Amino acid sequence: MEWIFAFLVALIFIWYLTFTASRLDRLHHRVETSWASLDALLQRRAAIALDISHIPSLDPATAVVLTRSAYLAREAEMAERSEAEESLTNAIALLGESEDFHTEYPEISEKLEVVTEKIRIGIGIHREAVATTKHQRSRPIVRIFRLAGTAPLPVVHPFEKVPL
């Protein structure tokens, strides 16, 4: 009778380890998908900035700064990504100082505002996903039994000023 009880406890423990490993895998997947979604939104913002830079009535200096910042943001490696996105945010802020832009081009201005709001939400979702995954990975049972496998520790991409 004791061996049945021990077998059931072992079975429940193995199930718990499997469940925890599966949950951790889903959390890692959530981090990856949240980053992919955020990256797509940032790429869309850069594309909109390039469209804005081609508007004929735009100040030439602003157009050059916007074009350069948009290309840097689109092509930046991960290490330089935060700085490039911050540069693009600052270039877009130059447009915010001009009320003429918003009144002359309301549809592109609206697209930029919608993408900016989605980016704010995407950054929040990504940070929350990373925090949850890190919390689960810090649990002793996960570390002792190496339930995270070979998955790298997720990182929050430092977008302090993206977008304001």
Q: How is this structure best described in words?
A:
There is one protein chain. The chain is elongated. Helices cover 79% and strands 0% of the residues. The chain has helices at residues 2-53, 60-75, 78-96, 99-104, 106-137, 140-144. The chain has 164 residues and is mostly helical. The mean pLDDT is 91. It contains six helices and no strands. The termini are far apart. α1 (2-53) packs antiparallel against α2. It has one domain (2-144): de novo design (two linked rop proteins) (Up-down Bundle), CATH 1.20.1440. The longest helix is centred in the first third of the chain and has 52 residues, at 2-53.
Write a compact overview of the structure shown:
This protein has 164 residues and is mostly helical.
Please describe the structure with a list of short key phrases separated by commas or semicolons:
mainly alpha, 164 residues, elongated, de novo design (two linked rop proteins)
Low-confidence stretches: none
- In the residues, how many domains can be counted? 1
Q: Give the percentage of residues in beta strands.
A: under 5%
Instruction: Tell me the name of the CATH class.
Output: Mainly Alpha
> How is the main sheet built?
none
Q: Using the coordinates shown, work out and report the CATH topology.
A: de novo design (two linked rop proteins)
Total helices: the number is 6
What class do helices, strands and sheet pairing give? mainly alpha
Radius of gyration: 23 Å
Terminal-residue CA separation = 66 Å
Task: Give the SSE string.
Answer: HHHHHH
Count the strands?
0
Give the proportion of residues in helices: over 70%
Mean pLDDT: 91
